[in-house]
Design a protein that fits this description.
Blueprint: E1 5-7, E2 15-24, E3 30-35, E4 40-44, E5 50-52, E6 62-64, E7 73-81, E8 84-92, E9 99-104, E10 110-117, E11 122-126, E12 133-137, E13 143-148, E14 159-164, E15 170-174
Antiparallel strand pairs: 1-6, 2-3, 2-7, 3-4, 5-6, 7-8, 9-10, 10-13, 11-14, 12-13, 14-15
Subcellular location: Membrane
Family: Belongs to the CD200R family.
Main location: membrane
Length: about 180
């Protein structure tokens, strides 16, 4: 999320026409087309997020600026050349890193929250804890996970929340 992504087409010389068919899960489909003989690009229902990546005519890549969860979906590049037709299909999945917060509740327990991640983050504790996870699924497909530290021993003073996620791992420590 927030970064640019580049999807490549089959590179080929002698390109006549290239079409990107974009079918996101959210919103309507759009099409980007390029005709080499006219050196012309047409767009149908595409937002400014979708553009040809500046490159040579032999590499008709699609650049998605500031990727959002709404950009998830199917992307198909169709290339017409004098040697035949070629296509490349993508299924774009967007990773959203969690926002990590660690605090103490009114009972003096550490509370770790990994907010608005996609997919859901995993939470673990040091020292180990038998805590239960609470999950909240948001309308945009992200998930918030909350965990309360439950000490097996009464003399624990410092705890560390470890959040594991495909977009990167994080940790924070607190003394409640």
């Amino acid at each position: 999320v927030g970064n640019s992504s580049v999807l490549a087409c089959p590179p080929n010389s002698n390109i006549i026409m290239v079409t990107w068919k974009i079918n996101p899960k959210v919103g309507g489909a759009c099409t980007l087309g390029y005709r080499a003989d006219l050196n012309k690009i047409d767009r149908t229902n595409c937002s400014d997020s979708f553009n040809w990546k500046p490159s040579s005519d032999q590499d008709p890549a699609l650049e998605i600026n500031q990727v959002e969860v709404a950009h998830e979906g199917k992307y198909i590049c169709e290339v017409v050349t004098i040697d035949g037709n070629f296509d490349k299909k993508y299924h774009l999945t967007v990773l959203v890193p969690p926002r990590l917060t660690l605090s103490c509740d009114s009972e003096g327990n550490a509370v770790c929250e990994a907010a608005a991640a996609k997919p859901a983050a995993q939470i673990s504790w040091v020292p180990e804890s038998n805590s239960n996870l609470e999950k909240k699924i948001h309308d945009n497909g992200t998930v918030t996970v909350l965990s309360r530290f439950t000490a097996d021993q009464t003399n624990v003073t410092n705890t560390t929340c470890i959040v594991s996620h495909l977009a990167g791992n994080q940790s924070k420590s607190i003394s409640c």
